[in-house]
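Need the bound structure for 2-deoxy-2-fluoro-alpha-D-galactopyranose, inputs here:
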Amino acid sequence: MLQEIKDKFKALYSQEPVVVRSPGRVNLIGEHTDYNDGFVLPAAINKEIYFAVASNQTNTFRAYAYDLQQEAEFDLNQVQPSDSSWANYLLGVVAQLQKANFDVKGFDLVYGGNIPIGAGLSSSAAVECGLAYALNHIFGFAIPKFDLVKMAQQAEHEYAGVKCGIMDQFASMYGRQDYAVKLDCRSLDFDYYHLEMADYRIVLCDTQVKHNLASSEYNTRRQECEAGVAHLQRHYPEVKSLRDVTVAMLEQHQEEFESTVYKRCTYVVHENIRVEEACRALEQGDMKTFGEKMYASHRGLQHNYEVSCEELDFLVDQAKDMDAVLGARMMGGGFGGCTINLVQLDALDTFTQQMEEAYKLQFGIHLKTYVAEIVDGSSLVEPS
Ligand code: GAF
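Answer from helper R.:
Posting the output first, comments after.
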């Protein structure tokens, strides 16, 4: 893929590019907690996008999306959202740099990779982070990595219309080979946790469906959580977000809540506790307990947060019936995309075969499975 992207760049723009790599992510546990100031445990994976970039001494940027085989050109003096949804992720990043007074000059870009779109593996965050990283490099802005993450997140808010938390962009930029990163989404402190994978693999089961309520429901969940916080603040003025709420606080005021809001809050408060427990289990090498937390996370997302769907639930139920699977859950925003499964290495083939057969029988859809390897975050590939 890398070679193809470089060749395409040279064919289109007749010069030697800088090449940047930017990965997608998995999230082991801690779903829909990031925008509630809570905890997440993602890792960057070997589903990646390559960016070949060079400045072009003009006032426009030209971009070629290799996977879509589409090209577009934009005036840097008039950066605004366009009709092309793929270009908006690029424009969003350029807009953020300009807003922060970085002088983005003309550039040419070819990008493409193997992150399946709409599978919940954060292809959009990989695009945003990869472009931010590449422009920072070629124009010598020296923007700290952390600020690039913030700009990438803001690009998603303003140009993709999703009020996402910070997890995906953070994981894409700060991933580390063989480690998951536990991020405190309030303080933005983080710790790396070694993933002892000698006997296990992380397997993704891609439902191949994306129900189209995903982004509207995402923003609705945020509002429901905010409504829960606003209510609790009447009793506990010190509460700033669901991160500050305990199970006891919630239960004490259950009767006062609108029932949907109560369910959403219950899920988030318990999920934050589960992330802490799962991290302790990881430290102790207790993968069995870790897996149980994954299943519990899924049940919360299914019944209380209500962001799952029948395809995801089916896959988790199937996995639960297999002894070789330690844990499984839906991953990311929900309503489709992938489940993440912790599977014993010696049963990998049986697992994928049985899952594919069962899914085909139930939905008539070919399930795609990927064994995810944990890799480093965005990096410069060439010049090395
Ligand atoms: C999406 C968002 F982009 C993340 O910020 C996060 O909220 C996730 O859904 C749910 O955990 O991937």
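Comments: The two ends are 17 Å apart (CA to CA). The mean pLDDT is 96.
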